[in-house]
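Internal ticket - ligand job 775, magnesium ion:
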Amino acid sequence: MSDTVGSAQISTVKSPLFREVRKGEVRRHIITLTVRNELGVLARIATLIAGKGYNIEGLSVGETHEKGISRMTLEVIGDDVIIDQVVKQLRKLIDTLKVKDLTDTPHVERELALVKVHTATPRARDEVLRLTEIFRGRIVDVSSDTYTIEITGTDDKINAFLELLKPFGIKEMARTGKVALRREGAGQEED
Amino acid sequence: MLRKGADIVIEALKEEGVEVLFGHPGGAIMEVYDALYRDGGIRHILARHEQGAGHMAEGYAKATGKVGVAMSTSGPGATNLVTAIADAYMDSVPVVFITGQVPTHLIGNDAFQEVDIVGITRPITKHNFLVKRIEDLPLIIRQAFYIARTGRPGPVLVDIPKDITQKLSDVPIPSLEEVKESLPGYKPHTEGNIQQIKRAGKLIMEAKRPVLYVGGGAVQSEAQRELVELAELMKVPVTTTNMGKGAFPELHPLALHMLGMHGTYYANMAVYNCDLLIAVGARFDDRVTGKVEEFAPQAKIIHIDIDPASISKNIVVDVPIVGDVKIVLRKLIDEIRKEGAKIIFPEDRREWIEQIERWKKLKPLTYKNSTDIIKPQFVIEQIYEATKGEAIISTGVGQHQMWSAMFYKYSFPRQFINSGGLGTMGFGFPAGIGAKIGRPEKEVFVIDGDGSFMMTMQELITAVQYKVPVKVAIINNGYLGMVRQWQELFYERRYSEVDLSVQPDFVKLAQACGAVGFRAEKPSEVREIIEEALKVQDKPVIMDFHVDREENVLPMVPAGKSYKDMILEDGKKAVEAETMYLVG
Ligand SMILES: Cc1ncc(C[n+]2csc(CCOP(=O)(O)OP(=O)(O)O)c2C)c(N)n1
Ligand SMILES: [Mg+2]
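stdout (structure tokens):
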């Protein structure tokens, strides 16, 4: 009881309730955007995400079949609630046409990797060639002691392939970052 | 017709109905200033610092609802605008900023007075443009105005390289239709989802203890009539944020005045105890909610806002409605009238309204006056009385700002102009000049702090030059008062670097600039000099009120605490949870 509020008419109850505060799970999100290919559009998107304290884990950009319209796929690890906020703010950008968080929508995603692997011995060459065939990759460049392999697929597939190549020694590699499209008939189209 | 890019700028501004520009020239923007001179059809106010120009444009926009325009040269001119741009962004003020840029071929060369202002302002503009081709210039300027004033308003910057202002082109000024078509990714939702509106109507009819929580969005959309109608129809008490002041008349019996950190006891008690909170054009800022877990802990929440990204940002809401406040409120009232005509019940609300009346009586907004020392609150009450509550008030940031929010009663939208989101000291005076230029028929009082005033006082000479009769009331406590108050309350009175007792003689300063200066040191002098100031109509007036140095702004909810931790005007800790009205 406080003495500063002396009104007897104020009824009293002991336990105030607490408002639920939103806090989501932290996980990897895959967000696709259709954007107008205007000056600074990528910088704007990157600034917005960095401004939330998040890092862009993966990014791919390319022009679509429509002139001046690009498609971007972003991978960001973050709290569901804050990502929801990011998506809403991305939608507000003047140059974004559509923004969708595909994480919980059935979708297809693919990535391409180029891997340069040491193949100094004939045995290594045989072995790497066999692995490449199993993973439906292609050898796109050959030197006296390296193969450069192109492989596409999901995260899991590419990671498994890289794991198997590790013992040979990976000299260099580059990944494109994912591209993703919603499976037709799944979820709602929205902007 | 072939004309220079600079002429296109002026032509497009006129097409937008721009009457006045606030700016400062320099190398990269000289062509535009030349076109302005040759055209002669737009008034220009030469601010003495670009920050001043930016805040003037904001004050103009806040007071009139029109888009303000500020202009500067490249480099330092542009960076001097940055604070005003950030300020406009935080408070959703429609301002178009035009900056000159080095010629296209020098961009990226670290050329003289080059700065990447588009990069710098990317996170603090609603949108910004670098004009790369003269053919795009008229469209971009019109897009800038369209984006600035529609949806959730905000600042837009257009950076124009010097060569673009010099080139010739016959590109026409596009129509508004063309502007809209050119922005396929920009479609503000204004209408509000009717299903959600119906749900909201039902909740309002069922609520026992509803409160309307009204923010700046209601001012922007000019929804005062709708708010009053809804509040009266459903007997809902109304609290406004700092930015929402004037959206609901404060003398109305249902007015609870401001909520939050320096809100009234009764507003905060009502919000803490309500079972339905109807947030209208407000964004649940931390200065309003305090500790989020204990903000309106029992309430269902309806949130009406034009900005989908504002909804459920800080707090989970039950009924989100994205749309223009005025339009949505109108539909909501129609729904309620249609559905609920039978359930209208001043009776059902009586208990709640009576409870609020008791809170109002128990802890009204008040202060202890004195006969030998001027209390800051007294000055503001006197200004209120002398202006019959009809003046536009613009403030700096600090204690004086909060007292201006508390002790002047606002009755119309756009009456209270201050820097709510960014909290920019130095905003008040130039913004007041801009407001007076936009609304010359109104008395404009700048209620400023000594610290705040000193941040932009160079604009005094601007106000003298253009004969802008703003009345500046300096609430002179010789301190960075708000910081001192926090040091007193939370740092055991260690007054680190807040003493401003070394300061100019503001009366002489006014005189030196050709303005009028008055000083009051005793309570009996206060009203007198306000009346004197009101007689001056051709130049600015500085009133230097020497007030009680260590007066505090109370009530206060310490940062991050809940409303129950409110410190009241008599200095006592307010309320224990047990004494609250909470039911169920
Ligand atoms: C540009 C800027 N710098 C610093 C601050 C931090 N600050 C907030 S209130 C305040 C003191 C303001 O002093 P004054 O204008 O004299 O107002 P008072 O509180 O004394 O009424 C300061 C330094 C700020 N809000 N803005
Ligand atoms: Mg002060």
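Auto-summary: The domain at 3-181 of chain B is CATH 3.40.50.970 (Rossmann fold). Residues 576-584 of chain B have pLDDT under 50 and may be disordered.
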